[in-house]
Amino acid sequence: MKADNYLVDFGDLDPITYIHLRTASGLSAKTLEAAQIGLANSICSVIALDIDNNQPVGMGRIIGDKGCHCQIVDICVLPSHQKNGLGKRIMKKLKEYIDNALPASCYISLVADGDAYKLYAQYGFEEVWPTSRGMALLKK
């Protein structure tokens, strides 16, 4: 599919679609309850739509307190739609929001899986190691 067959813009996802995009893209599964709560508390969501069938094929979100700390999460594109520049287009929209809506000194972080750090570096993100070390806790 050609890159111009997609619309990437701000929008809201329903929890079922959100869960599908995460799992089908290789991200960890989320419960329906977690998805409902999380999506309702998003600061900004970006959706990539396949124009041919109007179906979501990728997404990205910003979460946080809108002032001091925010985090980019859920950047993903369905495997059948990868290599069309959608990750870049999703990040471009999220960066647009950051530049226009968040205050100076807001700390925006993300966790880069694999080689994804190369994508994020194109938008000004820098590795924080060895000054900082990312850590996580998954509630079970």
UniProtKB/TrEMBL annotation:
PROSITE patterns, alphabetized: GNAT (PS51186)
Superkingdom as given in the UniProt entry: Bacteria
Xref: Gene3D superfamilies: 3.40.630.30
Pfam families, sorted: Acetyltransf_10
Annotated N-acetyltransferase domain residues: 3-140
Family annotation (CDD domains): NAT_SF
InterPro entries, alphabetized: Acetyltransferase_Butenolide, Acyl_CoA_acyltransferase, GNAT_dom
Designated name of the protein: GNAT family N-acetyltransferase
Native organism: Olivibacter oleidegradans
